[in-house]
Amino acid sequence: MNVELSDGRVIGVPLAWFPRLLRGSREQLETYELSPCGIHWEELDEDISVSGLLAGRGNQTREGRAGRPAAAQETETSSR
After folding, report:
1. Which class for 70: exposed (0-12), middle (13-18), buried (19 or more C-beta within 10 A)?
2. Does the residue 15 lie in any domain?
3. What CATH number did the domain enclosing 30 receive?
4. Using H for helix, E for strand and C for coil, what is the string for the chain?
5. 79 is a domain residue
6. Residue 56, pLDDT score
7. I need a labelling partner for 10 at 20 to 30 A (CA). Which of 37, 50, 52, 64 fits?
8. CA distance linking residue 73 with residue 31, whole number of Å
9. Would you say 72 and 58 are in contact if contact means Cβ atoms under 8 Å apart?
């Protein structure tokens, strides 16, 4: 998934970091709301913050961490 910020930067993260999005239909993925803080998919019950993307964090739920590579989980744990 690529997200373009208002300052022109583009952040790319693996869709696998967000299992709800990975399982969503094209229609569900295209139905989202933007806010100054991030992106919200009501039907998929998913919220992604800009600060989380900048920090390299994916889904912070148990479901999301289970699908993340071990290196990403270790980095996340060590940064807390």
Report:
1. exposed
2. yes
3. 3.30.2020.40
4. CEEECCCCCEEECCHHHCHHHHHCCHHHHCCCEECCCEEEECCCCEEEEHHHHHHCCCCCCHHHHHCCCHHHHHHHHHCC
5. no
6. 87
7. 64
8. 29
9. yes
pTM for this structure?
Answer: 0.68
Q: Is residue 40 part of a domain?
A: yes
Full domain range(s) for residue 22: 2-68
CA-based diameter of the chain, in Å? 37
Residue 70 — φ and ψ, nearest 5°?
-55, -40
Mean pLDDT (the chain) is: 81
Q: What CA–CA distance (Å, rounded) separates 3 from 9?
A: 8
Over the stretch 16-41, which tens digit does the pLDDT of each residue have? 999 999 999 999 999 999 998 999 99
Residue 29 domain-assigned (yes or no) = yes
Domain count, the chain: 1
